[in-house]
Write the structure tokens for this entry.
Amino acid sequence: MPSKKVVFFFPAFASTEATAPLGILAVATPLLRAGYQVKLIDSTITPNFRARVLEELSDALCLAVSLVTGPMIRETVEIAREAKRLYPDKPVVLGGWHPSLLPDQTLASQFVDIVVVGQGEDAMLEVVRHIEAGELPNGVPGVGYKEGGRIVFNSRRELRPIRELPPKAYQLADFDAYERVCGRRWAMYTSSLACPYNSAIAPTMRCTAGSGMRSIPSRRAKRCAIWRGVMDCN
């Protein structure tokens, strides 16, 4: 049976305030709902994470990495380089703040095949479906890729209101391991999206005002209840 597995790698942020990567948990839900298997490897809590990533990648469709600009780049380069050496035909997909802010620079790397710019919940699912079909992500909004050595960027993907997005896949995270690392049991939760003001210090790709960028209170309460159950805390 053809592989339905996607390996996500989350490099260390060089901080003791470690918890589950919210961005990966967000893009994982549509993949899980579509029947894909998701493996999440966070270098902060995974011993021998390099070997673990490469082992999981042996029968996977692709490697996906989420990162922000800074210390996370070092481990991303190390993993992506080794992944392309061992599995040159398996695409390496980068998403998160760094590829979104610097997509051209990121995609110019010889170890990166595809970048997702901005929200990834819909884009990543479409990218994985193209990879599974042996196709380039031609026409997938918010995505850049390489074709014949040439860098190609598709049209921009419009921002979706947070109330339309699926819940995060908190069940994928090992909160016991995060608690052992940082000494407390906690997680991030998003109740609003983007900045309503044109702030010079907020690195948002698009600042959007209005209640459409906030979650509905009743839904927020329901998701918080689910979140507390998964976290086993109050």
Summary: The chain is about 35% helix and 15% strand. The beta strands are 5-10, 37-42, 62-66, 92-95, 114-116, 143-147, 150-153. The radius of gyration is 17 Å. The mean pLDDT is 86.
